[in-house]
Amino acid sequence: MPGAPNPDRTAMNPSPDPLDPLLDRWRPPEGETPSMAPEVWRRIGAAESRKGVLASFWEDLDLWLSRPPFAALFVACCALLGLFLAEVRVNRHEREQSALLARSYLQLIDPLLKEDVVAKSP
Amino acid sequence: MNRGRKILLLGLVVGLATHFASYTLRRTYDPSSLDGQLAWMKSELQLTDAQFARIRELHEASSPRLRALASRVAQMQAEFVAFENTRRQSDRVDFIEFAHFVETRRAISRECLDSTRRLVLESASQMTPAQRALYLGIVAPASPEASSVVH
């Protein structure tokens, strides 16, 4: 009867499949498995680098600054940097101011002092 | 705006605020007034209040005289320029008048030197040796003689 299962294939002792010897001979290719992981990472890295350095930078920055300890540390560092730069500016201003005050004082106490002599004084 | 960028902005604001607050709160001295110069000297030489009061007194006492002398020195310089112009234009010199001018200028110079030296010595005598050394370093261009006398 057409469409009925072949009695040979459903028998308890089937005939040997011609693919079996081929499958038995198959071995995983040597040396391919160890190099797979670096290759995967290389592809991930390449995909991330395609996102753009700037975008990656902002993402990293957001990630770090969203952690409270790092955020507090960053704000404290900004305040300290502001203080340091103010100190540098004040020192320079004070040096100029001291030289100017010394010149004015010398001109006050010595009416004979010429401008050029005062200007050369330290 | 996400949280990380808010923190970044906050840090910048805090840094700038700290910088400008620290810079503007520093004390400054007015170089054109005697008060400003003396306040600067007090800070520079680390004078005590008593020293400062005495030195201020000395300067206030001699200041009008020194200003008057400075005005006379300026007047003598103007007279000298006028002499020089007359000599160039007429090729003649009034030697008697010039001798009188030189004598007057010499007297004023002597008076200036004496006033400066007296003020420097009196001020230096109110100071400790370390303060005096600093002070004489500042006034050395004005009164090298006083510096050498005290040293």
Describe this structure in words.
The complex is a heterodimer of chains A (122) and B (151). Chain A is rod-shaped and about 130 Å long. By secondary structure, chain A is mainly α. Chain A has five helices and no strands. The longest helix of chain A has 42 residues, at 68-109. Chain B has 151 residues and is mainly alpha-helical. Chain B has six helices and no strands. Chain B has helices at residues 3-24, 34-45, 49-90, 95-125, 129-139, 144-150. In chain B, helix 2 (34-45) packs across helix 3 (49-90), helix 3 packs antiparallel against helix 4 (95-125) and helix 4 runs parallel beside helix 6. Chain B is elongated, with a radius of gyration of 25 Å. Chain B starts with a helix and ends with a helix. At the A-B interface, helix 3, helix 4 and helix 5 of A face helix 1, helix 2, helix 3, helix 4 and helix 5 of B.
Concise description?
The complex is a heterodimer of chains A (122) and B (151). Chain A has 122 residues and is an all-alpha fold.
Features:
heterodimer; A: 122 residues; mainly alpha; 2 domains; 5 helices; 67% helix; 0% strand; rod-shaped; B: 151 residues; 6 helices; elongated
